[in-house]
Specification:
Two copies of one chain form a homodimer. The first copy, chain A, is built from 17 helices and eleven strands. The first copy, chain A, has 599 residues and is α+β, with helices and mostly antiparallel strands. Among the domains of chain A are: 8-140, Acyl-CoA dehydrogenase/oxidase, N-terminal domain (Butyryl-Coa Dehydrogenase, subunit A, domain 1, Orthogonal Bundle); 158-287, Butyryl-CoA Dehydrogenase, subunit A, domain 2; 442-590. In chain A, strands 3, 4, 5, 6, 7, 10 and 11 form a seven-stranded mixed sheet that branches. In chain A, strands 1-2 form a two-stranded antiparallel sheet. Chain A has a two-stranded antiparallel sheet with strand order 8-9. The longest helix of chain A has 37 residues, at 283-319. The model of chain A has no long low-confidence stretch (mean pLDDT 96). At the A-B interface, α7, α8, α9, α10 and α11 of A face α7, α8, α9, α10 and α11 of B. Chains A, B: It is an enzyme of class 1 (oxidoreductase).
Chain lengths: 599, 599
């Protein structure tokens, strides 16, 4: 059974307690948002997630989207849910008040996103893509385009897409062929075919605004010749309502492994009218504004599925009776004990739990930097935040989605044979989570972004905020007298040492031979992710220990559980850092030894 | 695209070269099977796999089985393929000649199974379950039952099932409720409902023979009160043809994540006539005969999917053009290089390749022991073989199926977005492979079987044949002068040391507290699997190095590739042993720290 109730206590912990001293807080723009107000937002969001989105998750998977005579339909109930969502203001939570948004901090917005992704990740794409598109328009479009499109998109009356991929090119967008012909009135005629367009068409909104990558007639080859265009499905009339159709058609929808309630469309643009967004031939830069926001959000998809997978597994493990505890009967009145008594079931549950709590904390750290990057008055803080976001974006995207898939699989495993059966609703998590490791740049591409762009930039400047934070905490913790915290600090010191050594190795070898950096990339990203999670768990343990020493009252259970979770991370997950370090050290030799023709 | 051609050269390597000196060979029963004959069997099997089974794999997934008015139908083409398969004698390859089988060694049979599972794992269950059922009947049934049923089942004219699971009990069969009432004529009336019955009903054979676990009226509670019964769908007439129906009905088929062409049935037995197989209340022992064979075969399912995932990924990686090589353009005439040039794509391909070759070798070692256990004239060899099989069965089942799922996922990842789309045929591998980690005992149950039964039995006697083989090879290799082999030997010594230490830790702690053994189980099984695979790679490297030194002629490419694959294993996979060792060492504390109610 798909089981969900937002982990509000943990959300409040990462929101208010965990990063109080990280130097990214105290933003004027957010002064009005009191902790109580933010908590109330989370509580209301939980209701929407549980009551509106979750009931459509399994049914949406079974029914899927349909395509008939050029028209795409979402599953039963989606239109009504979308209206409820939109009318409740949930689509515009973090959008700029200038365009009708509520201007809430990303810290809260990402927690709400987690709830939406947990309960209906297919649904999340419709408002999610719109939000990404508005970001790119806000950042790069002309005032005229902004005035015309942003209010309708921020209110979610119209939706948005990003049209990048063509059948022969995904990662390598330099190969794309869609053409843009300049017109006398300053507009362009866009012609070409795109695939894998999430929310490309549907019945939730009366207009869809496409952001399309295309080539101008005289554009240079490769990625330096790509421009970004805004192409509406229907051209707006003077009164702002959708007018004539614009040569945008749907050739079909994809039959996918999962995410079946999300319409993934093949789009044709046939002399469609579009307007340039940003500078000619600078479309990739404009698109990356959108992609970076989206990448963190895709990470949150992994986290959301991780959390619902965890909760669904826990519910089953407490209820399913099978076998007896190895340490003596726990349920003497029943025919057997609930399977949560078995160590190997605990292993699975604790792993999912550690992944969810660790990702939530690391994601929150990243969100704080996103807010500071946008709103801080202090130029130093702004720079630090920008660097931290640059470094962590690929880590969050890849680590969270890998863990999300792992958690989904652990949930199925906890259910045993019943997990493989559609009616129990948990194999859907495996199918739904799988795409997040691929889209918005595969996790391999994230790793290359990390070692190939983010590390070398500015002589490693992006690393500094992160490395400083970790060093500072480790220094702090070295003075602590608590026996357990000492052991965990030791583990973190080792892992951090491995990360620093790996960084140096990659910088050195990669300079001479970029394939060396490429060969290290995936293990290095995972290693950095583990150190990042370790940092949040050590900080959390420090706080929890202090609170418990003071007497934590009704929060005692929460802090004790936090220590238990941290313990599992340091005992069972962090040791993987050693294996990654050894793999990185071995270099590219064995990875590239076999000639291509010998495969 | 699902791409497959059996890896015949590697199969011949593991069959004839790799284990020539393991002491399990030279069986009189197999004297007539010359290497040439066995190679010819493999070549013919490859044709059946490629030409008969592979073309039905994707279509079978899309169509699935159907259930209507109590009748189950397999997808289009399955009946014809089954007839071809049966008439070619493929169903009876390893069966006893006494019952019409061909008596081929398991070593060859398991390689053929690999091909069948690679090209159509759903199909493999129909003959697979029959083979398992015949094993249990051969081992435990009366002569009369054998005479009546075995010839028809060995010829695959009739099929077989194993009916264990009920909706409230899978792992914990002690809870089962199906009843058996003794009749005056020595038969029994069986009444009850079973779920998850693979090949429970279908249109491939005119009769289905069920092996059903049930309770006699006066049976003791729990697993000690379970008996095994043979219950045919149709009662055979005197002339051996199917006669009147026997109260066996299908209540429905399951809607599963994958394996959609395999009919997984809910079966009702309503006063069905059955006959006892083996002793009253000793049904679990009889069923375990079947389960053990099946567990190794389930491991081979993982290996089969691993291999086709690898080949399908390689084909795509050689063809898909995207980006340029970091070490200079490789395909100057094309718009981009094939993605096989990228280190991170190599990482995925090499990982799949290492998993497939390592599992094939380890599986072959196990098959040799299976043959020796059955046919050796030397009682010492027989004991050694039995112990080796006992130890390795859970390892093969869990390791191969975990790696099979990993490989399937890596294949999808290699395809990027296209991998998520049904038409490309590779997401099916993920869905199909997932069940193998669960059925015939979840992989967590395999790990418990290893630490809870196989290790402690006879003061660790089961470990001896395996540990001796590894020690002997390491001693041998310590004398070798080759620089690379020395490094790999060093890695293996470390991993083997970790395995020995872990064994001692588990034995010690587990004796006092069985939860300690349970907490170590999954990591320990993986560690043992890695050491087992490492042993085969080191042996393979020893052979390849010697062959290349002699001048290997047309086999030069094969042996060089084997060294490259071994190198990747020792550089990139074996280091994980360290993480497992540290996790095992940490014990149960953090795994069991959180009280059940705090989840």
């Amino acid at each position: 059974m798909q089981t969900y109730d937002a982990p509000l206590r943990d959300m409040r912990f990462v929101l208010h307690e965990l990063f109080a001293d990280d130097g990214f807080g105290g933003l004027k723009a957010h002064e009005d948002f009191t902790p109580d107000l933010l908590d109330a937002v989370l509580e209301e969001a939980n209701k929407v997630a549980k009551d509106v989105l979750l009931p459509l998750n399994a049914s949406g998977d079974i029914e899927g989207c349909t395509y008939e005579n050029g028209v795409v339909r979402t599953p039963k109930g989606f239109k009504q849910a979308y209206d409820t969502f939109r009318e409740g203001g949930w689509a515009s939570l973090a959008s700029d008040p200038e365009w009708g948004g509520q201007g809430l901090p990303e810290t809260v917005n990402k927690l709400v996103e987690e709830m939406i992704c947990a309960t209906n990740v297919s649904f999340s794409l419709y408002p999610g893509l719109t939000h990404g598109a508005t970001t790119a328009i806000e950042g790069h479009a002309s005032d005229e385009l902004k005035q015309l499109y942003l209010p309708k998109m921020v209110s979610a009356e119209w939706s948005g897409t990003m049209c990048l991929t063509e059948s022969h090119c995904g990662t390598d967008l330099g190969l794309l062929r869609t053409k843009a012909e300049p017109q006398a009135d300053g507009s362009y005629k866009i012609t070409g075919s795109k695939i894998f367009i999430s929310a490309g068409d549907h019945d939730l909104t009366c207009n869809v605004i496409h952001l399309v990558l295309a080539r101008l007639p005289d554009a240079p080859k490769g990625v330096k010749g790509i421009s970004l265009f805004l192409v509406p499905k229907f051209l707006p009339k003077d009164d702002g309502t959708p007018g004539p159709s614009n040569g945008v058609s749907v050739a079909g929808i994809e039959h996918k492994m999962g995410m079946k309630a999300s319409a993934t469309c093949q789009m044709n643009f046939d002399d469609s009218t579009g307007w340039l967004v940003g500078q000619p031939n600078k479309g990739m830069a404009a698109m990356f504004t959108m992609m970076n926001t989206e990448r963190v959000s895709v990470g949150v998809q992994g986290l959301g599925i991780n959390e619902i997978a965890y909760q669904s597994a826990v519910a089953y493990a407490k209820e399913r009776l099978q076998g007896r505890s190895l340490s003596g009967v726990k349920n003497p009145d029943g025919p057997a004990d609930p399977i949560i008594v078995h160590p190997d079931v605990r292993r699975m549950l604790m792993t999912m739990r550690v992944y969810a709590e660790g990702c939530r904390a690391l994601g929150q750290w990243c969100s704080r930097a996103l807010d500071a990057e946008k709103h801080s008055d202090d130029p130093e803080v702004k720079v630090r935040a920008t660097r931290f976001v640059a470094l962590m974006t690929p880590v969050v995207k890849a680590l969270f989605t890998d863990f999300g898939s792992d958690a989904a699989n652990l949930c199925v495993q906890t259910y045993g044979g019943h997990g493989y059966i559609r009616e129990h609703g948990v194999e859907q998590f495996v199918r739904d989570s799988r795409i997040a490791q691929i889209y918005e740049g595969t996790n391999g591409v994230q790793a290359l972004d990390l070692v190939g762009r983010k590390l070398p930039a500015d002589m490693g400047a992006n690393l500094r905020p992160f490395f400083h934070a970790v060093s500072n905490l480790l220094e702090d913790m070295a003075k602590v007298d608590d026996k357990v915290l000492k052991i965990w600090t030791g583990g973190m010191q080792q892992a951090f040492g491995a990360l620093q050594l790996s960084t140096a190795t990659i910088a050195q070898k990669g300079l001479k031979d970029p394939e060396e950096a490429g060969a290290a990339a995936t293990d290095y990203l995972r290693l950095m992710g583990l150190v990042g999670m370790g940092h949040t768990f050590l900080k959390a343990a420090q706080i929890a220990t202090a609170k418990l020493a003071q007497g934590a009252g009704e929060d005692e259970g929460f802090y004790k559980a936090k220590l238990a979770t941290a313990g599992f991370f340091f005992d069972r997950i962090l040791p993987q850092a050693t294996a990654m370090f050894l793999a990185i050290k071995s270099g590219k030799r064995s990875m590239m030894a076999l000639p291509a023709e010998a495969f």
